[in-house]
Design goal:
alpha+beta; five-stranded antiparallel sheet; four-stranded antiparallel sheet; 9 strands; globular
């Protein structure tokens, strides 16, 4: 009888230990913080079937630096990571600040310049049909 009680006690202690260990593992996993989404940009596109390249580029613009009139061969999403960019398109211009984005359709003519006194950084992702040029500069 003592053996049965001792065996039961050992089993109970092992079950309790296993429960505590499992709970601690779950708590450790929950303690690891995931990333915080601070901004999300989304725009709908309709595409033809085929092969595409997803091209991502990070551009640093010194004060006064810019890209003259140009267009892209596919859809583009640009997000200002640092500073601000003056975007010139459709006969007007607007300032895109840190955390803001703009989109471009294939063939949209535009220019971008850092008109501020501090550096700017822009992340650009383009979805290009196979063989399409990423950027075409318009020579005047």
């Amino acid at each position: 009888m003592k053996t049965v009680k001792l065996f039961s006690l050992v089993c109970l202690v092992l079950i309790l230990f296993a429960s505590v260990t499992t709970a601690q593992e779950k708590a450790d996993q929950a303690a690891v913080a995931g990333p915080a989404a601070v901004y999300q940009a989304r725009f709908p596109i309709t595409m033809q079937a085929g092969e595409y390249d997803l091209v991502s580029v990070i551009l640093d613009f010194a004060p006064g630096a810019g890209l003259p009139d140009h267009f892209h061969g596919g859809h583009a999403l640009a997000t200002v990571l640092i500073g601000e960019i003056t975007l010139r398109e459709k006969g007007g211009e607007r300032i895109i600040k840190t955390g803001e984005s703009w989109t471009e359709n294939p063939g949209d003519l535009h220019a971008a310049v850092n008109a501020s006194a501090t550096s700017a950084r822009v992340a650009v992702s383009m979805l290009l049909p196979k063989g399409a040029e990423a950027t075409t500069i318009i020579r005047k």
